[in-house]
Amino acid sequence: MHHQISGFSKLNKTEKIDWIAKHYFSQPQEAIALIKRYWNSDEKLQQLHDEFIENTITNFYLPLGIAPNFLINGKKYTVPMVIEESSVVAAAAKSAKFWHSRGGFKTTILGTEKIGQVHFMFTGESSTLNAFFNHIKPKFYSETESITKNMQKRGGGISEILLVDKTADLENYFQLHATFETKDSMGANFINSCLEQFAKTLKSEAQFYDAFTEEEKNIEIVMSILSNFVTNCIVRAEVSCPVEALLEKQLENPAEFAEKFVRAVQIAKIEPYRAVTHNKGIMNGIDSVVLATGNDFRAVEAGAHAYASRNGKYSSLSNATIENGIFSFWLEIPLALGTVGGLTSLHPMVKLNLEILEKPTAQELMQIVAAVGLAQNFAALRSLTTKGIQEGHMKMHLNNILNQYQATVDERLKIMAYFKDNSISHASVADFLTQLRK
Q1: Which of 239, 289, 408, 420 has a Cα at 20 to 30 A from 338?
Q2: Which residues are catalytic?
Q3: CA distances from 180 to 8, 114, 297 (A)
């Protein structure tokens, strides 16, 4: 069944689809029809989407949902979320509403610094390399002037360039470790362009440095690339209120709830098997806003989980305490986001979502995203420590099963009534439906 093809990228879209349909489907026409059903009828819009990546054949939809009532630093936000997992948007909206009447979310930017590195090999004395580095350091700035000019106008640019000796970890390995301020852009292209120029400068200047031996002049550049571990691009989001203010219909005993909630967070602090799932819940909220605003959720994920392990053991990103009768719940997370450049100016839905958020700066977006992550975590822990997570999930699951079997309105009512007190599984629903249909 292995179908090899050379020159696939040179085929046009129709030819690519025909090739796939012919080789992988017994009913090629049905496959082609399905692929085309997901095309946008607006040809210009479709072409725009086709050109985001390579070898495109169609669009793959994800739902865009809305979580209203977010009160962040006294300002109201309605948040767009793109995600395929049920219960996430509902949970965010529920938390937003819950905290809206309890002072809302407080957020603070703890840093906006981005990092990039040039990794290189140097055989020789590190003291000689250090002297060389200090000698040519001004050239790193002057020779990237054409790249940094516009960024500097906006108040950004290169903050610092350091030479780091890593020879204790890997023989002859050094790096240029640079920090950047990229203002409202995420800055990946800007950073990588600067780094590639640093590498060129490093290599060419070494040729003319008299204190180097012939061997030392031969600096080997391994690679130049930004880091997604943005340990100084951090935002904090928190909620707090007196324990008794947690009271509402579903929470009759706020003190007991608060204690249990804090214990749940403590468990996620010390137990990695729980912490990963706990943080995954935070990322449900974070990724969906990151996606909705055309940002890179893989970069955000990688940075967040690395940050969760920064002390040598994977741990919860969020914290909770009860002190002097005050319940507090907060998280700190690294978020490198942009509101200009990249997909933000290309994808029409991204533009729309940024309008819904009232055109935030990158810093405002960091704060909104962190608040949604905290809201998501609050909803998940609240549900886990009270009624459990399956009740809501299984309702959605039941609905999906009923859709799969094309249940009638009458069948639905009988099934809903029966499964109110009986546990839901795919098999048990299918069996019950078969009995009904007899």
Answers
A1: 239
A2: 85, 280, 296, 393
A3: 39, 5, 20
